[in-house]
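Hey L., structure's done. Input below.
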Amino acid sequence: MEGTLSDLNGLCNSKFLEKISPSLVARARLQQQLNAQEKPARWWRRSLSGGLLPASMAVATLLMVIGVAVYGERRLARDKSTGSQDAKSQSIPNRLLTPGAIRPVTLSEICSSTDEDLDPTVPASTQNAVLEEYGVPRGRAGKNYQIDYLVNPQLGGTNDIKNLWPEPEHEGVWNARAKDELEKHLHQMVCDRTVDLTVAQREIATDWIAAYRKYVRRQTPA
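Output:
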């Protein structure tokens, strides 16, 4: 078939064109173009049906792409924290690294005692992992930062790394003391049933400074 078309192509390019119907020439050229376009398509169909790209390889490739994407996103978040946030006060945690994490709790459980900021101690290995993600040298951590809970345990927060970040201890206005004030205030409001527990958890995790201004009703800490 391909040889016949090749011969026909040579024929169409000769002076014999002058002696045959123009419509036949046009049809022959069109068939030649269609044949040239069809050959790559046939090759791909044979490759897929013949198993050159088996399903297992496709799945493995997809998993690899997903893994690289997840790692890259977290690495990018860490690099941003190291490059930009570490140069200024980290009052607001990086949401890609610290979105918050909670456990199921009831009002009777969290309201059985007052919030005295007696947060459970975070294991040293977890603290080091948090510092590494945020690019904070360990030597600076004890002097300038404390590993704090984004959603405090008294509101159902856990010690999962996604709920922890290096919060400025004293630097700036929005430091650990300001957040402690918000936590006590929100705990009281939740137990008084003036604020729903899930609302308090969501707002402190989303932007605790905005929550401070909303519930403590001051633009800046006293």
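The longest helix spans residues 55-83. The chain is about 55% helix and 5% strand.

-- N.
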